[in-house]
Amino acid sequence: MSAFDLIIIGAGPAGMSAAATAAQDGLRVLLLDEQPRTGGQIYRNVGENHARRLWLGKEYASGMRFVDALDRPNITTQFGATVWRLEKGPRVVWSQEGVSHVTSAPHVLLAGGAQERPMPFPGWTLPGVMSAGAAQILMKTAGMLPKDALLAGSGPLLYLIAAQMVDAGCPPKALVETQTPRMMLNAVPHLPRALFALPTLAKGLGLIAKIRAAGVRRFVNAAHFEAQTEDNGAIAFSFTHKGQRKTLATQLLLIHQGVIPSTHMSRSAGITHAWNKAQTAFQPVTDIWGNTDVAGLHVAGDGAGIGGAETAAASGEIAALDILHRAGRISADTRTQRAAEARGELFRSRAIRPFLDAAYAPPADCLSPPDETILCRCEEKTAGDIRQSISQGASGQRQIKTSLRIGMGPCQGRMCDATVRAILCASTAKGAAQVPAPRARTPIKPVTLGELAALAPHQKETA
After folding, report:
1. 240, 325, 255: which is closest to 287 by C-alpha?
2. What whole-number distance in Å separates Cα of residue 274 and Cα of residue 289?
3. pLDDT digits (tens, 9 = 90+) for 202-229
4. Beta bridge partners of 202
5. Do residues 46 and 92 both lie within one domain?
6. For the BFD-like [2Fe-2S]-binding domain, which residue ranges apply (predicted)?
7. How many angstroms separate the CA atoms of 311 and 301, rounded?
8. Alpha-carbon gap, residue 255 to 96, rounded angstroms
9. What's the distance, CA 293 to chain centroid?
10. Considering Cα of 316, then 321, then 322, then 328, what sign does the dihedral take?
11. Does 249 lie in the same domain as 137?
12. Eight-state DSSP code of residue 8
């Protein structure tokens, strides 16, 4: 008999909310996360950042309510735990400090969240160029502030980080944004629905107002990014704006082009995925309770479709209620009644998403960059290499992977899959939905041979 009724993978808002809900009704929960503490990306290190909460914002500090709710005797947390295989049963294979473990439970909830969309352009691999999300991690975990940095790309996170930098006393030198007037026009029909999420809309406008009040320059409708290293070590960042080529110098270039669901784990588990045209990404197919077509597996949070922290928390609670019902702890009617408030929150928090998806859509030169752009950092393959492979007969991502090894490095395609698919679609006149999601194979995270060898058939399950 398993020591746990539910294994939750990911301790962000979805995972924490689900763990608290399930444990409240007596389920024995194992919560696994790769990070040293709870919080996920949005609430990373929130329990330790008392002094930094002032410039990280009230919403960041509000994550403490999820952390505090985990203080229950039937929730077991394991941090620094890397999940690298999901098996039927379901069984979860994970490693911690170089030692592998196998743990089973009747139910597993995947709450792995999102990842930043790859934003390739010539020079994006240079020293001094990093993702805005990575810079925010350093802000939250080490208090390291990105001084005199340029922010480039688009999306709400770009404004949030810029506002946090302003509050921390190190405003960005400039924002170079890729959203176009056409994107904004496409977003207008979604504005009435977005009004259901008026507080979120007001927050975004407040962030933009704060950035403007700080005197931060904004270059909107910018395109054709390129970065080069100057003789003094600085980065020369060039882009086209209002028909002119502009160049700004900086020591630190932070790039961001929105986020997409992190699907390596759900794809490796065999869950069916569908193309989300609005978000330009694949996501697992679930029912209204987060249940999937693989027995025992649920998905919640941004890993099931981008929605944000409040959406993730609500979906985690809803999934946990469904698991409680399937475990025989509550009736179907009780599940539905208790989910009503979370469903209301889910509707409100999702109401703004179509507007944001249209207003901050990834631009064409991000999805299909110039030939000289390195796409696969691990194998140093360029966009031109991809196009040449297609011209020589590669008709899918598997063939491209076989011929170029693209996606076979340590990141396992996380930094290149999305762009390879976009180039494949542009080069073959296929719709994105016609190109299936690439397979994700075990191990879904790099592990040592020692960790693999430790998983002998006779090994007993551990917690």
Report:
1. 325
2. 17
3. 999 999 999 999 999 999 999 999 999 9
4. none
5. yes
6. 374-424
7. 7
8. 32
9. 22
10. positive
11. yes
12. E
Residue 164 lies in a domain: yes
Q: Tell me which residue has tokens 């978000």.
A: 279
The verdict on residue 358 lying in a domain is no
DSSP 221: S
Q: How many residues does the chain have?
A: 463
Q: Give the model confidence (pLDDT) of 165-193 as tens digits.
A: 999 899 999 999 999 999 999 999 999 99
Same domain, 151 and 234: yes
- Could you give the 3-state DSSP secondary structure of residue 66? helix
Residue 386 is inside which H or E element, if any? helix 383-391
Looking at the structure of the chain, the number of domains it has is: 3
Q: Which of 461, 349, 347, 445 is nearest to 89 (CA)?
A: 461
Amino acid in position 16: M
- pLDDT of 438 above 70: yes
HSE, side-chain direction, 13 A CA sphere, residue 120: 25
Burial class (CB in 10 A: 0-12, 13-18, 19+), 232: exposed
Q: Specify if 236 maps to a domain.
A: yes
Q: Return the bridge partners of 115, or none.
A: 260
Residue type, 123: G
Mean pLDDT of 409-433: 83
- The three-state secondary structure class of 211 is helix
Domain presence at residue 381 = yes
Query: Contact at 8 Å (CB) between 281 and 264?
Result: no
> What are the phi and psi torsion angles at 423 (to 5°)?
-65, -40
- Tell me if the pTM is above 0.90: yes
298-355, pLDDT tens digit by residue? 999 999 999 999 999 999 999 999 999 999 999 999 999 999 999 999 999 999 999 9
Read off the DSSP letter of residue 323.
H
36: Cα within 13 Å, side-chain hemisphere: 7
Residue 452 — φ and ψ, nearest 5°? -65, -45
397: left (phi over 0), alpha (psi -120 to 50) or beta: alpha
